[in-house]
Amino acid sequence: MDVQGAELPFLKSMAQAIENGRVRFLVASTHHSSISGSKTTHRDCVEKITSLGGRILIEHDVQESFSGDGLVVASFFRQDASVTLPHISRNTARHSLFPEL
User: Where are the domains of the chain?
Assistant: First the structure.
């Protein structure tokens, strides 16, 4: 999902679908506070996904991104608990498109 700052409300709206087993994987793009309105958007999304029963497979925040978008990949199915993904590259805040959240 890439909903340009509405990540958290979108995740909240998915609760019933997740509970009904209709969502297996989630790939979410999180955004800088200038778009989302919150400096904690990425962390809030990770926490919400986890509280909905998701297992974070891989993630990086906006400052660790080379593109300027954060990334969260998660699974909501238990059989995916052993899924491993390749390591991802990580930027540093100093070199980021958004050095400050």
Answer: 7-81
